[in-house]
Design goal:
This protein has helices spanning 21-52, 69-84, 106-114, 125-133, 139-156, 168-182, 210-220, 236-250, 254-262, 291-298; strands at 60-64, 90-97, 118-123, 161-163, 191-193, 200-202. It is α/β, with parallel strands linked by helices. The radius of gyration is 22 Å and the shape is globular.
Length: 299
């Protein structure tokens, strides 16, 4: 598998009547804008797939479509790559209804099917019951219910790969959230496996910032149906996003820098004793807790 994919695909406008020169220039400008956005996205998605070996020969990839800009961008990018990749893989999409969409998801389904992609829509009963049984449930509960439903749907679709639409923004936020609020140096994995290892979970938008997905879906006129959870204020996630927005005014490449940091971990300059040469013999400590530390902890 080569390390990245490229695409010469350009959107074709059909049935366009060139009535006046100004209109012609506007249409050509929109075509160029869409083509440029698409090239950026397809190149970065291809880079992620190649670097982390996300998709392999014969895979059946099920894309989780939430109705938002990110998952729809992912779906369209994978469809383009499917037609041009040096390997063979199939593609389908699904949406889990948990009662959180702010409008009908039907336009999204119509768009997906009009692109010739199989789409499965499932109303998840247990998730819908949560709305009445535990109306104040947190994101962790909702996520756990959604994960169960995703695996069930993927199994029905006979998929072995589930593609999720987390972007570079999500990776950076997870990295800072875990460091600042859970005391762990970790983020989202670009590729991981379900507990029983029957599904490979991939996040091909790891190198794509949200401003690209926003511009891309707007340029294509893709129907975007937001989830009510995305509108919440006063959350840690919202606070981190506001902080990023402020930092970006003076440091426009801060997301790229954080992503680079996640791939260049210098374990010898952290506090985890498993990776430190405490005795100066050139070897990391095998036991992360020394006898002295154990004694202190037992007091």
């Amino acid at each position: 598998m080569r390390t990245g994919y490229t695409s010469s695909y350009c959107f074709q406008f059909q049935n366009v009547t060139r009535v006046w020169n100004g209109g012609c220039r506007q249409i050509e400008l929109k075509c160029v804008q869409k083509s440029d956005l698409e090239k950026q996205i397809v190149r970065k998605v291809g880079e992620a797939i190649g670097r982390f070996r996300m998709i392999r020969e014969g895979d059946r990839v099920a894309v989780g479509v939430s109705g938002g800009k990110d998952s729809l961008t992912l779906l369209m990018a994978l469809e383009i790559l499917r037609k041009r990749a040096p390997i063979q893989f199939s593609l389908c999409a699904f949406t889990v209804e948990q009662g959180k969409f702010l409008a009908s998801i039907a336009p999204v389904g119509e768009f997906i099917q009009s692109a010739g992609i199989e789409w499965k829509y499932v109303e998840d009963g247990p998730s819908l019951n949560l709305l009445t049984e535990q109306p104040d449930h947190g994101c962790d509960v909702c996520s756990r219910f959604r994960r169960r439903a995703v695996y069930e749907i993927a199994r029905e679709l006979e998929a072995n790969v589930v593609a999720l639409g987390h972007t570079a923004d999500d990776f950076c936020e997870a990295f800072l959230r875990n460091a600042m609020f859970t005391g762990r140096v970790s983020a989202l994995p670009p590729i991981t496996w379900s507990r029983k290892r029957d599904f490979r979970l991939i996040r091909p938008l790891v190198f794509i910032p949200e401003n690209l997905t926003r511009d891309y879906t707007a340029a294509l006129g893709i129907p975007v149906i937001p989830c009510g959870c995305s509108q919440k204020t006063g959350t840690v996630r919202r606070g981190l996003r506001d902080m990023f927005a402020e930092l970006e005014r003076d440091h426009p490449y801060i997301r790229e820098t954080l992503l680079s940091a996640m791939g260049r971990v210098d374990t010898a300059r952290l506090l985890d004793t498993r990776f430190l040469d405490l005795d100066g013999n050139g070897e990391a400590e095998e036991n992360p807790q020394s006898e002295a530390l154990v004694s202190l902890l037992s007091i």
